[in-house]
C-alpha cells in the first residue's frame, strides 16, 4: 500500500462508520488499482463484500458510503459503477503537490519501516577450499539486493556469510597439506599453495586412492576438533587463502558481508544435541541421534529423521544450522532471519525450522524465511558449464562479462564517431558488465531457473542493465545539453497537462508501494519490472511525436518537465542502487 492508498483508507473507514455504525471500525475498504485506467486510478470493492452482512444491494451500499466520503483533497468526486464499485480518480493538483513534495527529498518520499527491527540476511556463504560457483553468485546478488532494500527501510540489518569452513573435508585437506607442504603447518607466515581448487581435487584423489591416508585424514579431524596448534594453523591457512579469493569477487561486485562461518558455532553443537535430548525429541537410530519429522517421509512412506549427531559422534550441516538459529535469536536478537540459497535446500531449512520450533526455540515474534532460487542454465538449457564441461569459475564469468561489454562499447563508440579516453572506456565497461550480470539475475522471478546469456544481458534493448543505465544517462544528457543543474530547479514547479506527463507522474509515485511489497515477498524482480516500466513511461513522455517538448518548451512547462526528468533519473538511480547497481552519468 502506498501513502495515497493509506490516506484513502482512513477516509473510507470514517465514511463506513458514519454510514453504518461503529461495527465497521477497522474495516478494509478493499482498495485496488483500477481495472481500467478509463475508470480512474483506484477502485474500492468494499460495498460488494458487505451486501450479505447488511442485507442491501451493493450499489446502494456504495452510494451510502460515497455520500459520507470526504476525499476531495485527493480525488475527483467518486463514482459508483457496475455492480457497486467505487471509482476514484486522483486529482491533478494532488499529484502535482505530491511530486513537488518529493522533489527535495533524497528518499523521494519513501518512508522508513514503521517498526524497524533487527533482521539477518544469511547469503553468499561459499565453502572454503572450493570455488564459489554460479549458485553462490545468485545467492550473493539476490541476498545483497534484499539486504539493501531492508537497510534502506531502516532495519538494523546483519549481513552474514555462513561460510562452509568446518567439517570432515578439512581432515583430508590438512593431511594432504602436511604431505606436500610440511612447512605450512609451522611457519608463521601465510604460504601460497597455489590454486586451492586444484589442491582440493588432488587431496580428494589421494584420499580416494589410499586407505592409510584416509586414516591419517580422520586423525587430523580429531586433532582439529581438539584444537591441536599445528592442525589449527593449517586450517587457518586454508581459510585465509579462500577468503582472499572470495574477497576479490566481493570487491568486484561491491558486496559487504560479515563472515561468521560454520566453525563459529562449533562450540555450541554439543549443547544443541543436549537440549534436544532434554526436550525429549531425540531418538537413537542405528547409533545416530535424530529427531523425527512431520510431513517428511521416505519412499516407503515412513517418517524421516533429521540426524543431528552421526554414529561416529560427528555433527553435520543441520546441527550447525540449529546452533546458528539459536545464536541469532538469543545473542543477535533477530526478529526475522532470511536464508538465501538454491531451492534444493528448501527441505533442509523446512526440517531445521520444524525441529527448532518443536524444541520451543522460536519465539512467536521471530520469523524464519527461506528465500529459494532456481538454477542457472546454459544457453543449451542444461546446467551452466564451460565448453569443456567444468563448472564455471565466477572470476572468469565476471571477467568475460566485462570483456564483452568492453568490445560492445568500442564498437558503439566507433559507430557514433566518439573519442573517449581508455580510462572512461574501462570504467564504463566494468560497470556495464557487472550490472548486466546482476540485473539479468535479479530481473527474473528468483524461484525459476534462468538461462545465462551474455548476448541477452548486454543488449541495449529490453529489460536489461544496459537499457536501464542508458535511460539514466540519457536524462543526464538533457541536463548537459540544456546546461541545467537539476538541483537548481525551482520548487513547486510541477504542472501536469499532457497525458504522458500524468502517466509518468502517477508511476513515479508508486515506488513506495513496490518497496513495501518487496520487504514482504523478497522478490527483487518486481523492482526491476517497475524500473523498466518507468523508463518506458519516460520514453513516451520524452518522445517527439507522442510526448512533450522539454528543453525547447515555454515556461512554466519547461521547468516542470525538467523536474519530471530529474525525478525519473533519481528514481532510477535509487531503484538501481537498491539492486546493487551503480549508474553512469555518461556511457
Ligand atoms: N555453504 C552452503 C552451500 O554452499 C550454504 C550455506 C547457507 N546458509 C546456511 N545457514 N545454511 O551450500
Describe the structure.
With 587 residues, the protein is α/β, with parallel strands linked by helices. Among the domains are: 3-90, 2-Layer Sandwich (Gyrase A, domain 2), CATH 3.30.1360; 169-254, no CATH class; 378-453, no CATH class; 460-587, Isoleucyl-tRNA Synthetase, Domain 1. The chain is built from 20 helices and 14 strands. The chain has a 5-stranded parallel β-sheet, with helices on both faces. Strands 1-2-4-3 form a 4-stranded antiparallel β-sheet, with helices on one face. α6 packs across α7 (196-209) and α17 packs parallel to α20. It starts with a helix and ends in a 9-residue tail after the last helix. Residues 122, 125-127, 162, 164, 321, 324, 339, 341 line the site of arginine.
SSE blueprint:
Elements: H1 3-20, E1 31-33, E2 42-44, H2 46-54, H3 58-68, E3 79-81, E4 85-88, H4 92-103, E5 118-122, H5 134-152, E6 156-161, H6 169-180, H7 196-209, H8 211-226, H9 229-253, E7 258-259, H10 269-278, E8 282-285, E9 288-297, E10 303-309, H11 317-330, E11 336-342, H12 346-358, E12 367-373, E13 376-377, H13 394-415, H14 422-442, E14 450-451, H15 454-457, H16 465-481, H17 499-508, H18 511-521, H19 525-542, H20 557-578
Parallel strand pairs: 5-6, 5-11, 6-7, 11-12, 13-14
Antiparallel strand pairs: 1-2, 2-4, 3-4, 8-9, 9-10
Bound molecules: arginine.
Arginine binds at residues 122, 125-127, 162, 164, 321, 324, 339, 341.
Structural class: alpha/beta
Proportion of residues in β-strands: 5-15%
- Can you tell me the residue ranges where pLDDT is under 50 for at least 5 consecutive residues? none
What's the overall average pLDDT, rounded?
94
Q: Report the total helices.
A: 20
Major sheet, described briefly?
5 strands, parallel
Could you name the CATH topology of the domain at 460-587? Isoleucyl-tRNA Synthetase, Domain 1
The level of helicity is 40-55%
> So, the CATH homologous superfamily of the domain at 460-587?
Isoleucyl-tRNA Synthetase, Domain 1
- Widest sheet, order of strands: 7-6-5-11-12
The distinct bound ligands, ions and cofactors come out as: arginine
| Rg, Å, rounded | 29 Å
**Annotation, overall tally of beta strands:** 14
Q: Outline, from the CA principal axes? A: flat
**How many angstroms does the end-to-end distance come to?**
36 Å
CATH class assignment of the domain at 460-587: Mainly Alpha
User: So, CATH architecture of the domain at 460-587?
Assistant: Orthogonal Bundle
Amino acid at each position: 500500500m502506498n501513502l495515497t492508498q493509506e490516506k484513502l483508507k482512513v477516509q473510507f473507514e470514517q465514511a463506513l462508520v458514519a454510514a453504518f455504525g461503529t461495527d465497521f471500525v477497522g474495516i478494509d475498504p478493499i482498495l485496488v488499482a483500477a481495472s481500467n485506467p478509463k475508470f480512474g486510478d483506484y477502485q474500492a470493492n468494499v460495498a460488494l463484500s458487505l451486501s450479505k452482512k447488511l442485507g442491501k444491494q451493493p450499489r446502494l451500499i456504495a452510494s451510502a458510503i460515497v455520500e459520507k466520503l470526504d476525499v476531495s483533497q485527493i480525488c475527483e468526486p467518486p463514482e459508483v459503477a457496475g455492480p457497486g464499485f467505487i471509482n476514484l480518480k486522483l486529482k491533478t493538483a494532488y499529484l502535482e503537490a505530491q511530486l513537488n513534495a518529493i522533489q527535495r527529498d533524497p528518499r523521494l518520499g519513501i518512508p522508513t519501516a514503521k517498526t524497524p527491527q533487527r533482521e539477518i540476511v544469511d547469503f553468499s556463504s561459499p565453502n572454503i577450499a572450493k570455488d564459489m560457483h554460479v549458485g553462490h553468485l545468485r545467492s550473493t546478488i539476490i541476498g545483497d539486493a534484499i539486504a539493501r532494500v531492508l537497510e534502506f527501510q531502516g532495519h538494523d540489518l546483519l549481513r552474514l556469510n555462513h561460510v562452509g569452513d568446518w567439517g570432515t573435508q578439512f581432515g583430508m585437506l590438512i593431511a594432504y597439506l602436511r604431505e606436500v607442504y610440511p612447512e605450512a603447518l609451522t611457519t608463521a607466515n601465510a604460504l601460497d599453495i597455489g590454486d586451492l581448487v586444484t589442491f582440493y581435487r588432488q587431496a580428494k584423489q589421494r584420499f580416494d586412492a589410499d586407505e592409510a591416508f584416509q586414516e591419517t585424514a580422520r586423525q587430523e579431524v580429531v586433532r582439529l576438533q581438539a584444537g591441536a596448534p599445528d592442525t589449527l594453523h593449517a586450517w587457518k591457512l586454508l581459510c585465509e587463502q579462500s577468503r582472499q579469493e572470495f574477497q576479490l569477487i566481493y570487491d568486484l561486485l561491491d558486496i559487504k558481508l560479515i563472515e561468521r562461518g560454520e566453525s563459529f558455532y562449533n562450540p555450541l553443537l554439543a549443547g544443541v544435541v543436549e537440549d534436544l535430548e532434554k526436550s525429549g525429541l531425540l531418538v537413537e537410530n542405528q547409533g545416530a541421534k535424530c529427531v523425527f519429522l512431520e510431513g517428511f517421509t521416505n519412499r516407503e512412506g515412513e517418517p524421516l529423521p533429521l540426524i543431528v549427531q552421526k554414529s561416529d559422534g560427528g555433527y553435520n550441516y543441520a546441527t550447525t544450522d540449529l546452533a546458528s538459529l539459536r545464536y541469532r535469536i538469543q545473542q543477535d536478537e533477530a526478529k526475522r532471519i532470511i536464508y538465501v540459497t538454491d531451492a534444493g535446500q528448501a527441505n533442509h531449512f523446512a526440517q531445521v525450522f520444524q525441529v527448532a520450533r518443536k524444541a520451543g526455540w522460536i519465539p512467536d515474534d521471530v520469523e524464519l524465511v527461506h528465500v529459494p532460487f532456481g538454477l542457472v542454465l546454459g544457453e543449451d538449457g542444461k546446467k551452466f558449464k564451460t565448453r569443456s564441461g567444468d563448472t564455471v569459475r565466477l572470476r572468469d564469468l565476471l571477467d568475460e562479462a566485462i570483456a564483452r561489454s568492453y568490445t560492445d562499447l568500442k564498437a558503439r563508440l566507433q559507430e557514433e564517431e566518439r573519442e573517449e579516453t581508455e580510462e572512461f572506456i574501462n570504467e564504463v565497461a566494468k560497470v556495464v558488465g557487472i550490472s548486466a550480470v546482476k540485473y539479468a539475475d535479479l530481473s527474473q522471478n528468483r524461484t525459476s531457473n534462468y538461462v545465462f546469456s551474455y548476448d541477452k544481458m548486454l543488449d541495449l534493448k529490453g529489460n536489461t542493465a544496459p537499457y536501464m543505465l542508458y535511460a539514466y544517462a540519457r536524462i543526464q544528457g538533457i541536463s548537459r545539453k540544456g546546461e541545467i543543474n537539476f538541483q537548481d530547479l525551482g520548487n513547486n514547479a510541477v504542472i501536469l497537462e499532457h497525458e504522458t506527463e500524468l502517466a509518468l507522474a502517477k508511476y513515479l509515485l508508486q515506488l513506495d508501494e513496490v518497496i513495501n511489497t518487496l520487504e514482504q515477498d523478497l522478490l527483487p524482480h518486481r523492482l526491476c519490472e517497475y524500473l523498466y516500466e518507468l523508463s518506458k513511461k519516460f520514453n513516451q513522455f520524452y518522445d517527439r511525436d507522442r510526448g512533450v517538448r522539454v528543453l525547447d518548451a515555454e515556461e512554466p512547462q519547461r521547468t516542470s518537465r525538467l523536474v519530471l526528468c530529474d525525478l525519473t533519473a533519481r528514481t532510477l538511480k535509487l531503484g538501481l542502487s537498491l539492486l546493487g547497481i551503480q549508474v553512469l552519468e555518461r556511457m
